[in-house]
Design goal:
The chain is an alpha/beta fold. It folds into two domains: 117 residues, RNA methyltransferase domain (HRMD) like (Transcription Regulator spoIIAA); 202 residues, 3-Layer(aba) Sandwich (Rossmann fold), CATH 3.40.50.150. Helix content is 32%, strand content 26%. It contains twelve helices and 16 strands. The chain has a seven-stranded mixed β-sheet, sandwiched between helices. Strands 1-2-3-4-5 form a five-stranded mixed β-sheet. α5 runs parallel beside α6. It is globular.
């Protein structure tokens, strides 16, 4: 990596460039990232500049400005662009997303360097379609990389239901792992269209069904059909409300899980994700313990969020305000095994 610190900078800019360089070098030294071309280059919330998040997608960098007053981070955004074009010459495009801009197009992203964006990325041998301007997020979440690997390794022959699928990456991982069939459901038809592109990229032969429907409506319909799945995934948004029901991860997470439990086959798995920043990990474990008292739910394991998301020992400056322990990040991922009452008593 070229040493940018030999250039003439003010003390503040020197310190910022030094931090950027330390954080990027930690990613270069992370052997696990050799299996993907998507990773977080800088997480300012943990690594010393809250509000600035930088992700690499193949040859494109997405620089996200989350500041409530975007102008407060404008200089840092510009500096990171200068830094990365010198440090990673293979980066050919930079997309800047301004989360709290009044302009919806700036929230989705402005191309400030280069002329094109990638249409797909690679992770652990799987191709995923991406649409980096689909929304104010990037259509792909690097924080669930380890979960996609677990799903790939634990889906052989299974029937899978992926709820709140969005662009369907978790479901696509199960198909690559040999799942027998996949049902993906989400209200966002445009997002589900991205999952259809991922399906085509990998030349899958197993059936994949896309249901652009409300979660509560899908749950009711599948229960009426007496449908059962070996593996059910629930990755809900923090909060949403429709005429069919309400999603509230902070206050009603257990209710959301219990809606899906009747659809899990005997000794099947339920993958439950809670990414509510203000939900302590201890609260989540307490709710799981309460569900487990029935004898039909058992906590098997948690899936950690990768280090490029959480920061490394030599890069972490800030700790989360709400303790996610025993999880390692506010994206709290649990693998639950489900026993069916009718099977247990037969």
């Amino acid at each position: 990596m070229p040493n940018l610190l030999n250039q003439s900078f003010t003390k503040d800019k020197y310190q910022l460039f030094s931090r950027f360089q330390t954080c990027l070098e930690s990613r270069f030294n992370d052997a696990s990232l050799a299996r993907t071309n998507v990773y977080r280059c800088f997480n300012g919330y943990y690594e010393g500049l809250p509000g600035l998040v930088v992700d690499r997608y193949a040859d494109t960098l997405v620089v996200s400005n989350h500041a409530r007053k975007p102008e407060e981070l404008a200089e840092a955004v510009e500096l990171y662009g200068r830094f990365i074009t010198k440090s990673l010459p293979q980066v050919s495009s930079i997309l800047v997303k301004t989360r709290h801009s009044a302009d919806s197009e700036l929230r989705k992203g402005q191309l400030v360097f280069g002329s094109s964006l990638p249409e797909s990325i690679q992770e652990n041998g799987i191709a995923y379609a991406v649409d980096l301007k689909l929304n104010q997020d990037d259509s792909f979440y690097p924080d669930t990389r380890n979960l996609r690997l677990w799903l790939k390794e634990n889906s052989q022959g299974k029937t899978v239901l992926n709820c709140f699928a969005y662009t369907g990456t978790l479901g696509i991982a199960t198909l690559f792992g040999g799942a027998y069939s996949l049902t993906q459901t989400d209200l966002n038809e445009n997002a589900l269209a991205v999952s259809e592109r991922s399906y085509a990229l990998n030349l899958f032969t197993q059936p994949m069904r896309s249901l652009p429907m409300d979660y509560f409506k899908v749950m009711a319909a599948l229960k009426n059909q007496k449908a059962l799945f070996d593996l059910v995934i629930i990755d809900a948004p923090f909060f949403s409300k429709t005429r069919h029901g309400k999603v509230d991860l902070l206050h009603e997470w257990s209710r959301l899980i219990n809606k899906a439990r009747p659809l899990v086959a005997h000794e099947g798995y339920l993958v439950a994700i809670n990414n509510a920043l203000f939900t302590p990990g201890s609260q989540m474990m307490k709710e799981i313990e309460e569900m487990s008292t029935s004898g039909f739910v058992r906590f098997e394991q948690s899936i950690p969020v990768p280090a490029d998301i959480t920061g490394y020992p030599d890069t972490i400056v800030n700790r989360p305000g709400i303790d996610p322990a025993p999880f390692n990040h506010s994206t709290k991922i649990s693998i639950l095994s489900i026993t069916r009452k009718d099977e247990k008593t037969s």
